[in-house]
Amino acid sequence: LDGCRIILQVGKDGSLRFFGRNKSVKTFLYDEKTDVLPFHAGIKLDTFRDSIFDGELISTNSCVSTDSTDINNSLSACSAILNSEPEVAKEFQLKYGPFKFVIFDVLKFCGTETCSLSFKARRIIREQIKKVMSLRSDIHPKLFDFVNYKDTDKKEFYEELVREGGEGIMLKDLSAPYELGKRRWSLLKVKRFNEY
Asked: What is the 3-state secondary structure (H, E, C) of the chain?
């Protein structure tokens, strides 16, 4: 995935709020990004009240133009729009398509903290969420997605991904808990290395 890390908080009323992973220098709170995601704002996830999902927000169109520059990758497009005014963000998404939120972990599920659970246990919960959301006809499939996991042939998977232009893969220890904001050996990023 080549986008911006985002935390999705499902409120006790089922409403959605999106937060960046950085804290504001003014308020010392995580930057809320809900107002620049107008296509997600009206969705209610009543089934998952009081839940928190970790994921990545990606632009479904990586070649875009703003008033001042041409952007040719998803990460830059996502970054530019997440840090723009709500009206600009809405206009951009009307022109190029809405952002997709890709869920890859569950930090809280229906009022129960899950960070202390193993990744394997959290992955089972995530699969249940995926199944329920796939049955919802009111949620457009372009707004939400889920990371696909590969338990076997990781080297082959990595090589295929890189051949197709992907950046790399994440290797996770299935027994590890979730640790917010910490570098750890239970989560490794494997990327291609270019020498110039």
From this structure: CCCEEEEEEECCCCCEEEEEEEECCCCCCEEECHHHCHHHHCCCCHHHCCEEEEEEEECCCCCEECCCCEECCHHHHHHHHHCCCHHHHHHHHHHHCCCEEEEEEEEEECCEECCCCCHHHHHHHHHHHHHHHHCCCCCCCCCEEECCCCCCCHHHHHHHHHHCCCCEEEEECCCCCCCCCCCCCCEEEEECCCCC
